[in-house]
Amino acid sequence: xxxxxxxSQKTEEFVPLEGNKVKMYVCxxxxxxxxxxxxxxxYITWDVxxxxxxxxxxxxxxxxxxxxxxxxxxxxxxxxxxxxxxIARFYYQxxxxxxxxLNNLKPDIEPFATKTLGEMIAINKQLIEKGHAxxxxxxxxxxxxxxxxxxxxSKQPLxxxxxxxxxxxxxxxxxxxxxxxxKHDEKFGYKSPWGVGRPxxxxxxxxxxxxxxxxxxxxxxxxADLIFPHHENEIAQSECANxxxxxxxxxxxxxxxxxxxxxxxxxxxxxxxxKILENYDANAIRFFILTNHxxxxxxxxxxxxxxxxxxxxxxxxxxxxxRKTAKIDENLNLNACEEYQEFVEAMDEDLNxxxxxxxxxxxxxxxxxxxxxxxxxLIYKISEVLGFNFDKVEISEAELKExxxxxxxxxxxxxxxxxxxxxxxxxxxxIQVRNVxxxxxxxxxxxxxxxxxDIAGILLKDEKNETTWEIK
Length: 472
Description:
Elements: E1 2-5, E2 10-13, E3 21-26, H1 37-55, E4 59-64, H2 71-80, H3 84-101, H4 117-129, E5 133-136, E6 139-142, E7 179-184, E8 197-199, H5 201-213, E9 217-223, H6 227-242, E10 247-253, E11 256-258, E12 261-262, H7 273-277, H8 282-290, E13 298-299, H9 302-323, H10 338-348, H11 353-369, H12 373-385, H13 397-410, H14 414-421, H15 424-439, H16 443-455, E14 458-462, E15 467-471
Parallel strand pairs: 3-4, 3-9, 9-10, 11-13
Antiparallel strand pairs: 1-2, 5-6, 6-7, 7-8, 11-12, 14-15
């Protein structure tokens, strides 16, 4: 298996530091706003890496942090008249729901910055003692010139680097490039040896990574926008504190763009995951993301997602038709199947998901022609590794249309529906058809059924786990 290492800028053979174990860290969200399609691209990408490493038999420990103390959280709290904790908790829950909706697996460890303050303070102390950091009026800064390798990840010499995102200018610094490890803050701070304050953004990931994965880890991943200054600063503070290599393989995903510009909250051109899910299936979003290589930029458009939806429907149809006559064979020897080997070769080539999808489409064609257990098992297992979820789909488009027509026929008049009410099974069937339509985001059909029932004097109640009805 080969992966592209952003640090060496080469595709390298993946060899874990310790036998079959893989320690993987991904920079998580700063919870102050809704997650957008750019976040979907990032976390779907690393979800696929996580799934594939486990599929290959590695013992993976996946850690993805939550930044719940940050300037942006404080700003949002002041704007909305809430506490920073209220903002962080609300948007963390929203983020978790979005990730679940996208069928992303939960990481093995999901630490919060506010729960790792002791480790941050410990690293700061080490850096100060070693001369890599200094204290000024309750602030602690990292002395960038003390680290000779600074700039090697972003491939720019120190002189060429300018203060970037979240690197604050200050007259207190020895050098404009020195970055904050701890910030004096009497109002929203925590106790420390340097007074009341809060951690800088960069030190948070170094502390959480070291606490839960150790001094040196196999894979550190995130968006390409984090290369500088965030990941550059992580390397500097971690290696100076620990005295050893911080990360063996650095991996970064490309941007999602709109009109050739990076999708971001600062530019105001972002689409939230929840908003996109109103019109597109989660599988379609994943398909859209995986059609392109993870390191390349992806241009968003409705046309692209519509095309992705069509691709997903082809897979839906193949799997659901095959399920009618075949079952998944858990004992199938995947290694003996040519399509499986082609899939592995594609994924071993730095997660070439576009090639992997091509294998899936070939399998879909074969499955349509030969609806047997072998083909069904292969297409289902490969889809599962890529994170698609086809478990909820039970009927084809043709079957859905047939059942919808029957349901509309049944609820055609008030008299007929009143008769149908005496038959509980009939109402269950009608509701099931509407639920399937809703799952497939066929809102016009779902609404037509609801309105027809309403006219007939039947009120539907959509509750958390079921839909009930009553005669008005």
